[in-house]
Amino acid sequence: MSDSLRVPVRDFVDGVTPALTELGSAEPRADVVAEAYEIVSAFVDADGTHTDEELWALIGAFSGLMDTHIHHATPADIRATGLIAGKRSFIDGASLMFDTLIVADKARGTNHAWTYYVHALRLAHHVAALDSVTQHAELEAIERFRRTLLGSISAAGLPRGTRRPPPASTGSDPATGTPAGAKAAEAVEEDVAVEVELPPIRPLEELLEELDGLVGLDAVKREVKLVTNLLQVQKLRAEKGLKVGDQSHHLVFTGNPGTGKTTVARLLAQIYRTLEVVPKGHLVETDRSGLVAGFVGQTATNVVKVFDSARGGILLIDEAYSLVRGGEKDFGREAVDAIVKLVEDRRDDTVVIMAGYTDEMAELMSSNPGLRSRFPQTIHFPDYTTEELVRIAELISGGSDYRFDDEAKVRLGELLDDVPRDRGFGNGRLARNVFEESVQLHATRVVALEDPSADDLATLTPEDLPERIVTS
Fold first, then answer.
1. Which residues of 369-407 are buried (b: 16+ CB within 10 A; e: fewer)?
2. Composition bias, kind Low complexity: at what positions (predicted)?
């Protein structure tokens, strides 16, 4: 019998029982124990393989809590009776208990559903941590469960957890991911390290909520959450003294410009800090110009300096494929060799993300035997749809106290539909460019008005949009 789940199960029971007591449940603790049993059973069943480790943990957690014969059972007994077969369906929808807490929170202004959510997700991660190798199906199940519960909370108009003021801007457009700060290429000129006070570590749920709030990128969000779930499970295993696989945290981002790669990288840096993968959680951006020098020997020195600036956080190398585009004698290949060595030497405190066009990044990964093994995972950033680009333009305009009227939004969509979605399509940057051009046209129109109102000064109409969008 194993005690691996005893603490998280009791935490769930102790955390949720007061809510049911407050709502007048006849047997609140027994009801919550039964709910915890359903959650644990669902995640044991998530990958269809009921291991001895999982079943002994189930028996150990509930043998003293439920009035059943489970404390006399063995894993073989549970498998033979099919006791938890099919239990994974529990996480396909919100339970009656969770729905009841949602209704109560909405009526009373309480926060019981969030308490349930926090303890239930923790319980799910603990179950996934029981296996020596966490299966993809288990990580998918955790994310599906998370999405289901948060969907119910959002649909009811309830807040997520305890609110706090957002952190100071880190220098990027939250809608488009366009970097606003200086790149590491400029920092390389500085040999003196300046210690900057780190902001407080942000709660994981707050970071995931910010990720969810980004326009579009559904597939990207799903991949980031799977990475996050795996890191949480590995952290729990390490805390219990269990073996943790040697997992590379380095990533490849592919896709056109303006698809949010920088914004997601910045959030991922903070997620990695929260989960103790890196100590600082800052993002440093660079490209070929920041890494490659014009004479022998200096390129490797440049690479080391850039890695030094990123130590404790994430280094994002944009257009990384350009490092191998100059032929055999190009110094970019020296940079690649240095990167391969440094990602291995500093894997405990620095994460590297290499970004660029899809086909070109595949060529880069094939150019050096050490790259593919060190960058095993690729996340693709698709082009935004027209509807998403219109939404991004709205967010950008709102941030500058402008707004598109309804007719202008329709016309903007038509203009965006006419732009070919080919290599180099600008995505979020294109939306920003259209907004900025519209502001100029709007100024020309409004300046001719005798006494423009505040609404005149803030509203963009179809007349303010360009006749067509020029992309080159």
1. eebeebbeeebebbbbebebbbbbbbbbbeeeebebeee
2. 173-183
